[in-house]
Amino acid sequence: MEKKTHHIRNEASLFWKILLRQPEIGEGSVQLLKDTFLKNFETSFSSLENSDDPSFKESFHKLLLSAGRFRIVDIKDFVNRVVLSYQKEQMYRKDRRNHFSLDILFQTIDFLSAGKSEDVAEQNLASKQDDGLSPQERENLIINYRAYNAMNAKILAIGNLKDALFKKDNIVSEVALLHKDLTITALEFMFRNIVAQQLLSKKYNCDTLINEWGKEYNFDDDMKIRILSYISADTPLLKFRPKYAQAIQAIKNTDFSKSNVLDSDLFLLRSLANFYTSWIMQVSEMIAA
To answer: According to DSSP H, which parts of the chain are helical?
Structure first.
């Protein structure tokens, strides 16, 4: 029973965040009472369990009318738009291949030039034609990269992780307004990933990351020494991503015939990034949605 109640409340919260994205809410032509909407959603959930049911839109329409006032010409268009967004969220959740992963960030970093502005970095990525990615895949990387940075900036601006967790719904909703191409669910994954990094950084530096990576893949001390030449053991965990970006760029600018840098260093760094990603993801899955 408790599990079902938790699920219903999560669905109600998701619907509310979808509603906040609609321009009519921002303009004030649709005014909804949050507490009334959430309460009525929970009490009428039996008619809202299946979004593919022909009666779903009608049930949702009635729910909206019970929770607010509308000064729009076509409320059916509004309802259709919200329902389509909800169905998109459901499709995203069903296919784990779509789920946001830090792999996206490290894949993006591989295309970026360290030390340049975000705008120039994005232009570099958008203009590449020889990376094996389709234009849509490149655009998806950029969209996720922007949203992640925006989310991270908001969490860091709060300064206190406990306060950030308390304000999670507000943070996600604010970023969702600016990045409407991404699902709410994807943005919540981002939030949990960022929080997971913050939590781990309070306990570990990059020395732990590199040692655990070495154990996981059975790399010898020589391999770890090569990594340490790019990312020192005392590097704070939150500095791993910029250090990784600098290392990738340094290797790409290296003339291997005139340097003791090995082309396999790139492989080792990417392997470390994959391990870092899996470490963060494991912790993020333990953080309540």
So the answer is: 2-20, 23-27, 34-43, 56-65, 75-94, 103-109, 118-127, 135-158, 161-166, 168-178, 184-201, 206-217, 221-228, 240-252, 264-284
Statement: residue 114 has pLDDT above 60? no
Query: Residue 5 is encoded by which pair of tokens?
Result: 């109640």
Burial 12-29 (b: 16+ CB within 10 A, else e): bbbbbbbbbbbebbeeee
Element (H, E) at 70: strand 68-70
- At residue 51, the pLDDT reads 87
Q: Which amino acid is at 223?
A: M
pLDDT at 111 (0 to 100):
56
The angle at the Cα of 30, spanning 29 to 32, to the nearest 5 degrees, equals 145
Q: Which residue has the tokens 């950030």?
A: 164
Q: Give the pLDDT band of residue 141 (cuts 50, 70, 90).
A: confident
Q: What is the pTM assigned to this prediction?
A: 0.84
